[in-house]
Design goal:
about 350 residues, alpha+beta, FAD/NAD(P)-binding domain, D-Amino Acid Oxidase, Chain A, domain 2, nine-stranded mixed sheet, six-stranded mixed sheet, binds flavin-adenine dinucleotide
């Protein structure tokens, strides 16, 4: 018999899961309170590198490819444009970093991602630069259009789920019993009584949209800050990392810090057009949380996407959808018990 799943939370986590259920013709509904604080704010940049260590990030090879194919497919389904190919340029901060990057060129695992060396690479910063393949998702379009699609198909409730209107034992919400319920609540997870031990931290981040007279620049630049070209002469620049901070608004301090850090990329003058802030759901080991509740076995958590939600969510949502639909085991690596066992 077909199962019916309730997804609570309409950020990139919950919505990627909803798209997987749609693909497989599975019954589901999604509830979102319309107060998204992370997925719509995100710059939406996806690339496979951890620049700090000049390494591929966790599971980057499969996750990057799956994310790319997933967003392209959803663009077709929704008939909306939000996927944008991107050349991502890392400006090196030391001679050592430049040498390590040269070594990576001889490493087969980096081959699918690194751009060929070009003479232009030398012209950035005192130590040169290197480019990697990537893309960016226009997060506002992806989230809004995905929610609109669910609304049009009568699969969306606009509501706040609490311990008062949802019962984890009966899995009942608004008079309907569900076979599985997924909590994809982002940093708000802590407000819920279930999976209370799952350590979802709140890491605030701020972004500026600026006018930068630089029509020739079509790559994103990354050093102490990043600059992402979103349309001619308009860039998103950011971001900040403010740990255990759940205040929602942008701050003057955040704006000053971004403008200071962006001087590692350019000394041009930038005109600030807008300033936004969000809260990333992070974990101490920078790995996501996808797991089944120990007592309420049909209750699942999908959280902890950290700074890379747009790359991780498509693959993890597929993994979770297979666990719910086909009873496949979830990876132990994703279980919050790793923090307390
Ligand atoms: C400034 C900034 C820049 C970023 N840049 C990037 C980037 O370039 N690339 C990238 O991959 N990632 C980026 N991120 C990280 C990315 O935004 C997160 O990884 C991702 O959005 C987390 O998604 P989520 O669905 O888990 O959480 P959220 O986006 O927070 O979604 C949770 C949803 O659940 C809803 N909700 C919560 N509680 C309830 C309830 N009780 N009832 C009903 N609904 C509820 C919320 O309103 C929200 O809509 C950035 C984040 C920030 C803040």
């Amino acid at each position: 018999m077909q199962k019916r799943t309730l997804i609570i939370g309409g950020g990139v986590a919950g919505l990627c899961l909803a798209h997987h259920f749609t693909r497989r013709n599975e019954a589901f509904c999604l509830v979102d309170d319309g107060k998204n604080a992370s997925s719509v704010v995100a710059a939406g940049i996806v690339h496979p590198m951890s620049f700090r260590r000049t390494l591929l990030s966790w599971n980057a090879t499969p996750f990057y490819k799956e994310a790319q194919a997933f967003y392209k497919e959803i663009e077709i389904t929704l008939k909306k444009k939000f996927y944008h190919p991107l050349k991502v340029r890392r400006i090196f901060s030391s001679k050592e970093e430049s040498l390590t990057w040269q070594q990576r060129r001889n490493d087969k695992s980096f081959e699918p991602f690194l751009h060929e060396f070009s003479p232009e690479d030398e012209s950035f910063g005192p130590y040169g630069s290197g480019c990697v393949k990537g893309f960016w998702i226009d997060s506002k379009v992806f989230i809004t259009e995905s929610l609109n699609d669910l609304h049009a198909r009568k699969l969306l409730f606009s509501d706040t789920v609490t311990g008062d209107n949802f019962n984890p034992k009966s899995l009942e919400y608004k008079g309907t019993k569900y076979d599985a319920v997924v909590l994809a609540l982002g940093y708000k997870h802590k407000e819920f009584p279930w999976f209370s031990k799952a350590p979802v931290n709140a890491t605030k981040g701020q972004l500026l949209t600026v006018k930068w007279d630089n029509p020739e620049l079509h790559t994103s630049l990354h050093r102490k800050a990043f600059a992402l070209p979103i349309s001619e002469n308009t860039f998103k620049i950011g971001s900040t990392y403010e740990w255990n901070n759940t205040t929602l608004g942008p701050t003057e301090k955040g704006r000053e810090l971004i403008l200071k850090n962006v001087t590692s990329i350019t000394s041009d003058s930038l005109e600030v057009l807008s300033h936004t802030a969000g809260i990333r759901p992070t974990t101490n080991d920078r790995r996501p949380l996808v797991a089944q509740h120990l007592r309420h076995r049909q209750l699942f958590i999908f959280n902890g996407l950290g700074t890379r939600g747009y790359m991780l969510a498509p693959s993890l949502a597929q993994h979770l959808s297979e666990a719910i639909i086909e009873n496949k085991p979830l990876s132990e690596e994703l279980n919050p018990s790793r923090f307390y066992s």
